[in-house]
Specification:
single chain; 287 residues; 4-stranded mixed sheet; globular
Length: 287
């Protein structure tokens, strides 16, 4: 192919690239501007957006509160990545990688920053002794699947999702490449769930929360408008599992938090108490 792209000897950044989310991509780290983050009254301050990675944290908090862990009360503040909030000075101080979600745990004498969604899930699970088994072998199995998600989802999101839904032009090779990998991952999950009620066995855990945020949404047709293209109905055990997770009240609440798009009844831009969900419903009924 004579007109195919030939990489230069040295790559240079000349302009934004990346389609819809081009403004979020740059080849350097660090803050671009000074920006203070708000701080509420609860032991945990979450700065996030209801993307698949973001809802992992809010689902986790809502599950902990549903289990009776009142110490897991949190304030959730929206970070609008399209506006560059993740590059503000206070946010970068929490997460030098400028990605959501980012968490400040101020429940103890010394504030603790926690970034990366998997790290947030594990930090909270260990802190409250919930949603992760205490028995060593079962704990390792949960960790296996948690880290599987962290390593696999970039192929689904930055790979398939980007080229299928967001790239400035449709390109056959990367779409085929990442569609194949995404379907392989769905098959991995389907085989695991054929013999297990939940991802890591008979108990609901942080592995389910992490994986559901990406692959459950995909199976439900809520990610990249790609359900038909990927034939997600062909994975019956994933479908059964995704439906069971989606019906959990804490999951329904967690998916609303820091969401500022879609149907009004699906949005709760900020979350500061459980009553915010009731107010949200009442406001939408009034509208």
């Amino acid at each position: 192919m004579s007109d195919s792209y030939q990489p230069p000897k040295v790559w240079t950044w000349e302009s934004e690239s990346g389609g819809k989310f081009a403004s979020t991509n740059r080849p350097i780290a660090g803050p671009t501007h000074d920006q203070e983050l708000p701080v509420g009254e609860h032991p945990f301050q979450l700065y996030s957006m209801a993307t698949p990675n973001g809802v992992k944290a809010t689902i986790m908090f809502e599950e902990l509160l549903a289990l009776g862990h009142s110490g897991a009360e949190y304030d959730a503040w929206p970070i609008r990545i399209g506006d560059g909030d993740q590059f503000g000075s206070d946010f970068v101080a929490i997460n030098p990688n400028s990605k959501i979600p980012a968490l400040m745990d101020i429940s103890g004498d010394t504030p603790v920053r926690v970034f990366e969604s998997g790290s947030i899930l594990l930090h909270l699970a260990d802190k409250f002794g919930a949603l992760i088994p205490k028995e060593p072998a079962k704990r390792v199995e949960v960790m296996n699947w948690l880290f599987w998600q962290m390593g696999s989802a970039p192929y689904l999101g930055g790979g398939f999702g980007h080229f299928y839904a967001y790239a400035p032009e449709k390109m056959e090779y990367p779409i085929n490449r990442f569609a194949m990998e995404t379907k392989r991952q769905l098959d991995v999950l389907d085989r695991q769930l054929a013999d297990n009620a939940y991802i890591a066995g008979d108990e609901y855990s942080i592995a389910d929360i992490a994986i559901y945020a990406w692959y459950g949404a995909l199976a439900e047709g809520k990610l990249y408008d790609a359900a038909e293209f990927l034939s997600v109905q062909d994975y019956p055990h994933v479908q059964r599992w995704a439906k069971s997770i989606a019906e959990r009240p804490a999951v329904k609440r967690g998916r609303m938090v820091n969401r500022f798009w879609g149907e009004p009844h699906e949005q709760l831009i900020e979350r500061h108490s459980a009553s915010d969900f009731d107010t949200n419903t009442e406001d939408k009924r009034a509208d």
